[in-house]
Design goal:
About 50% of the residues lie in helices and about 10% in strands. The protein has about 550 residues and is α/β, with parallel strands linked by helices. The strands form three sheets. A seven-stranded mixed beta sheet has the order 1-7-6-5-4-2-3, with helices on both faces. About 35% of the residues are buried.
Amino acid sequence: LVNSLFHGREPYAVFRSTVFLALVVKLARHLRRIALRQGFKAALVDAVAPTLKRLPQVRAKLERETDKTTKDLRETFGKTLTQPRVTLPVEGVAEARILELMGERKEIDTKDWRDGKITGAVYHGGKEHYEFVGKVCSQWGFANTLHPGIHPALRQMDSEVVQMVVNMYNGGPDACGAFTTGGTESILMAMKAYRDRALAERGITDPNIVICSTAHAAFDKAGKYFNIHVKHARTNDMMQVDLAHMRRLIDNNTVAIVGSACQYPHGSIDPIEDMAKLAIKKNIGLHVDACLGGFLVPFMDKAGFPVAPFDFRVAGVTSISCDPHKYGFAPKGSSVVMFSSKCLRRFMYCYLTAWTGGIYATPTMTGSRGGAPVVGTWAAMCKFGERGYIESTRKIVGATRAIAKGIAGMPELELVGTAEVCVVAFRGREGSGVNIYSVADCMKKRFEWEMATCASPACIHLALTLPSSGNVSRFLEELAESVAAVKADPSAFTSTAGLYGMAASLPDSFIEDAAGAYLDAMLEAHAPAPAEALGGEQRLSGARLRRCGARAAAGGQPSSAP
């Protein structure tokens, strides 16, 4: 057929036709990728947005808005500054003065959560527990897990934390894992392992993963970092993954699917057993993200809250992420990524065998990793033990369900998701006239509750912790008052609603500019520039510095500044 098609034609014509056909095939593949990954409308908006942003009027407005946002953020961050500093002191500061200032700053950083009126973030809050973990961590603050030969006891505790968590999740004899610095790194490492295994064993060069739209943002981050296409499956009415939609999204390049136990926005647990059957059928990995509920879900059965199997007991579950630094009450910077087999874990590793500094190999993203989070985690886990975690699970899950029951009885509100672990998400009922973002603003303004705002669907949530688990009645009372206040005067609480309404109407690149301005402001040292602070070149004698307690040479700062 091919020979007859080109019979009698000039070689150049054959060449031209071949090139044209190749370009058509390439274009078709490109269009198919766009259709599958983001859709033509979104692709068109993304393509046009950079041009729009270069238009003088648009650019000028964006700059004005960015400058305003930056100014507002600087003012916000500036309110809590204590003895701002951007240069080294001329002479060292006395230890007593540094400790005094640390006490002042610690008070600033604890006053907003001490009453248990924030969502998540601070999971234990007990002074004695923090002091105990702090004592342990202080002995290992300068130890490095990168050097197991120098710190063999640290290596022991690092591996024991991992194995204890693997056993919590009913890992088999070949199950294993690694200690990481947080849930995001654990998720990144698991996704890298699936990508590299698919390349080595199946020759997949354009990998994708299929996750629920409620899965943690770290999976999309992994997609950006590791060039993995991330497909998002819809949810059902319970905010669990729509299995039929997930099944349709799986193709020959899919390397893994993802389920949550539980997910962050609404607290629902995905149907892990059904997902595992799908993973086995498609011969792909299944990662269970238990970063949030990692030290609750394994103890729910014994705490009196039956839960469907979600861990390595389920055939088809091949990796799990879990954060001890949440409900495990360990210091921040501790997470564990687990694998069903050592063979799969190997694909997480990074090897550099031809480096001039010698053979270099690391199991996770980091090279150097501090010992303090490791020993603090080991100490916390051993201190609480299984019975301690069962009791904390009973308190937190019990409080979550009590609040959910109270909200279900409010005629203006309805639950979003299942509220079965530690998160209660809710919104205004259709026809109630209640904007749920306005309720969050009222809760903050009148009662100092910090709620998390979520989108698609619009709702707010409270992640219960030990500090907030004792505030069930108070929360429900003040929530009811906030709903009544919003109904009485809807225009009085509109800041969050306005922000989300504006964001919904803008292309992603415009929202990214605003988010970038926030990150810039967050990373900035909000202190006077050295020349401005000094008022020109000034020199202070060492004797005067010593007399003033080694204060800074920056004019305009209190004389006791370190």
